[in-house]
Amino acid sequence: MATSSERSPPPFPDSEDQDVLDAEEVRGRDSDEDEDLFGTTIDRSEVTAGVIDPLSQQEAKQTSTAPVIDLSGDSQPVTSKIADPLVDLFSDAPPAAEAKKPSSANVDLFDDEEGSDIFAEPLQTKPAKQPQKSLFGEPDEDVFGEPLGAISKKPVPKELKEKSVTTKVTAGGPLQDSKPADIFSQAAASTPSVTSTVNPKTNGVHSEEDGDIFAEATVELSLDSPRNERKKEATAKPSAPAPTSLPAAASLAKPQPPALEEVRDGMNAYMAYKVSTQTTLPMFRNKTFTVRRRFSDFLGLYEKLSEKHGPNGFIVPPPPEKSLLGMTKVKVGKEDSSSTDFVERRRGALERYLQRVVNHPSLLQDPDVREFLEREELPRAVSTQALSGAGFLKMINKATDAVSKMTIKMNESDVWFEEKLQEVESADQQFRKLHALVESLVVHRKELSLNTASFAKSAAMLGSAEDNTALSRALSQLAEVEDKMEQLHQEQAASDTFTFAEMIADYIRLLGAVRGSFDHRMKAWQRWQDAQSMLQKKRETEAKLLWANKPDKLQLAKEEIAEWEAKVTQYERDFERVSATVRKEVIRFEREKTKNCKRQVITYLECLLQSQQQVSESAFSYS
Amino acid sequence: SSKTLRSVSVDLNHDASLLIDIPDALCERDKVKFTVHTKTTLSSFQKPDFSVPRQHEDFIWLHDTLVETEDYAGLIIPPAPPKPDFDSPRDKMHKLGEGEATMTKEEYTKMKQELEAEYLAVFKKTVQVHEIFLQRLSSHPVLSKDRNFQIFLEYDQDLSVRRKNAKEMFGGFFKNMVKSADEVLISGVKEVDDFFEQEKTFLLDYYSKIKDSTAKAEKMTRAHKNIADDYIHISATLNSLAADDMTANKKNLEKLSDLFEKFRKVEGRVASDQDLKLTELLRYYMRDIQAAKDLLYRRARALADYENSNKALDKARLKSKDIPQAEEHQRQCLQKFDKLSESGKKELTSFKGRRVVAFRKNFIEMAELEIKHAKNSVALLQGCIELLKSN
């Protein structure tokens, strides 16, 4: 009876068709929604969440958001960043910078409506556009794409979202707490934009931002460049040695044990990460704020979100895994590169995780998320501890889930899901392989840099032993060149790791989450089937009673039947809803992935480019 | 052609009276058969143009006989070419065969190609190094006239019979002596000549450093090669990902995979160029310096002999016995020593010049090649980025 939403997935458009897609999405959502608050359908400020690519900062649409911001008055782009503790001072700068951005023209596009509160305005894209290396002489090795999803949240919800918004955030109805009905009750218009900023670049070099992908989607292209420049500056996030000239946008601060709170208590020591948010959304108390969070806090947030939204078919972005070995090394104070690597990876992953969460329109509305970002002290998320009662419980749950997965044979009525699942699984496999390969590439590159370093030293010695002065000079120059090469290789290895490998690792985790949502859908189906069979049984009972002519029991039976009928309908509808959600989510996920992937790759390649150029320069100078 | 392969030495083949090259070589199992081709205007040879097949062991025999010839004690004998070593590519080929099941067909083919290229490179290197050995001999005013050298070039029968005889005759005696010579001996002898004193210090020091550099350069080259291999695998995996991907991402993945494929070729070439120009250069001169050290050693021994003969003469004079023999012996030692010193000086000086020239040439070539490759990579990357952005 319930008609499953047999909507075939919209064609996957190229980036040029984003607007088209957005429109489709909007329409789709309309059918689900009960009401559209504003009655306007256009404005979903469709900022495709995909824009918020955690890894790439290219939220090109910054510029358009700027005007919006202006209109809204005091709105400022929101960037939630996890700021590097050392550059706390810069956290103010970015807002300023971003505020400047909005001054562009699109004023006329947006009306400010003061008063409605629910919708965040379409936000702007993330600043993170880093000026190309031209600004910096060093190769770009910003590991974490600068502003990952800097989605600016426009404080004034009422604005009519115009698609001119640069950053795209899919307008999603705010997610009501635990309300199973109408997830999309809100008129989509509000696209909350939360900009999460980028994290510090290890050398303060900013990865280049490629905002042009969304150029087509935004109207105000012309304004982009100057704004981009500023945005880029804003997003530069200096890390410890970073040049302080660049204000830091949101970034996940690298926890520096001495500077940051590292509670040193033997094995109880932990890293606290600073999470800074910049926002213009009204639902937050302040415009910018910073809190300290532990890794287990992140995990706790994930637990809560997945419990609440997972069963509804949402793809809840997963955080990085616990790693006993990694953290132990850090705790023990081992100051070698592997532990700094680990911390850096984790930090980046956490930042991207948060940015994905805030990019998801429904998840953003969840009060837990807000609490996570805002509250000073969070209760310890004990349930995330590995060796606790809750931990064991979770393990058991996982096991039962796995078993039930095997036994449930879903009668798949929708071929689309089946195909998707196949794709997801094979993609997962491939990505794992790719990840391993990239890791080995990193290892080899590190080896190369080591070897080059030792060769450089050796060549220097040889040069000093050489009695022919010209040759001696040549040899020592060779040593210098090789030294530079070594550094380049090091940097390249770092970039390989953080840009490439981490992106792949992220995808692997996300694919797992996608699978999870498929599983939830299956569970919903199962519930529905169970309810149906229960209903059947009740009907049989009723029939029997009728035949046996027991009126009182009959009444009871009838009531039960009614109850179960309702349940059946309910579950069926649930199932449909979940299916639709899953479908939407997957589409969105894929779109994001495409964009992210592309951006990521571009960043990575540009990085390689840089290093190659350096190599050629050095070689040239040598000869 | 042999000329283009030559990397470690300047052009030696400019004396038309005796031109040698190795145009061709066959690889069978463990043995490499070189075709040594000679073109000569010298009447000492029977024919003006001829070729003979030779094995590596024949080269070693020639080298050893030269070393053991007293007359050449004052010369730097060009270092013997190292044994052709196909172990590394062979092992890798083996491992590749074992791992075939885990790779896609393309991957396997590409890896195989890489290995074949590596094999070929080893092959080329060994041909080159053998050729250079002969050419050093042919361009040396004294050594080129050596009878054994001539036999080597001309004798159209299998040399192995001769080789065995030679071994029996000399028993490798001298060679062992030279080999087991301690550098202590050299440094222990009091040096009378400043020139040689300097040379000795310099060569000893330089030798150890260049040995170190060679090893490090080799490791560096190998790491480069590993990276190139990694690119192959990455490219293949990206390809499979692209094949499965139905979204717009597909094109991106394909382009990326393509890029890596091209990239690895560039990396591979970087690695091999570095290998040839840098590592091989260092390796060759390491051996050459060893040969120079050997010369110094022989001279030091001659000096020691001379001093011993002096002492013997003094003793004889004291005892008033066998004075003429002792005098004669002393005179001979002195003569030998002087001869060694004189030719040694010449040799070492020319060696220095040769070395500097070779280094310079190779470094320049290497730098130029690196620039070329880097530019290549830059172009590739830029192209790919353009493609991706415009998509």
TrEMBL record, chain A:
Stored InterPro entries: AH/BAR_dom_sf (IPR027267), PX_dom (IPR001683), PX_dom_sf (IPR036871), Sorting_nexin_N (IPR005329), Vps5_C (IPR015404)
Q: Identify the keywords attached in UniProt to this record, alphabetized.
A: Acetylation, Cell projection, Coiled coil, Endosome, Golgi apparatus, Lipid-binding, Membrane, Phosphoprotein, Protein transport, Transport
Task: Name the coiled-coil region(s).
Answer: 554-581
The record gives the membrane topology as:
Peripheral membrane protein
Main subcellular location of this protein, as a coarse class = other
Q: Which Pfam families match?
A: PX, Sorting_nexin, Vps5
Query: From start to end residue, where is composition biased (Acidic residues)?
Result: 14-23
Q: Report if keyword Coiled coil is assigned.
A: yes
- Start and end residues of each stretch annotated as Disordered: 1-79, 93-209, 222-258
Start-end of Basic and acidic residues biased regions: 156-165, 226-235
Which ranges are annotated Polar residues under compositional bias?
55-66, 187-205
Q: One GO CC annotation, please?
A: cytosol
- Mind listing the GO biological process terms from this record? early endosome to Golgi transport; intracellular protein transport
Domain PX residues, every copy: 251-380
Family label: Belongs to the sorting nexin family.
| PANTHER family linked | SORTING NEXIN, SORTING NEXIN-1
Protein name as it appears in the record: Sorting nexin-1
Which organism is this protein's natural source? Astatotilapia calliptera (Eastern happy)
Automatic annotation (TrEMBL), chain B:
* UniProt KW keywords: Protein transport, Transport
Q: Family assignment?
A: Belongs to the sorting nexin family.
Domain (PX): give its ranges: 1-159
The signal peptide here is none
Q: Say yes or no: keyword Chaperone present.
A: no
Q: What is this protein called?
A: Sorting nexin
Query: Which GO biological process categories is it annotated with?
Result: pinocytosis; protein transport; retrograde transport, endosome to Golgi
Q: What does this protein do?
A: Involved in several stages of intracellular trafficking.
The source organism is Astatotilapia calliptera
Provide the Gene Ontology terms for cellular component.
cytosol; endosome
**Gene Ontology terms, MF aspect:** dynactin binding; phosphatidylinositol binding
Q: Which domain of life is it from?
A: Eukaryota
Keyword Transport among UniProt keywords: yes
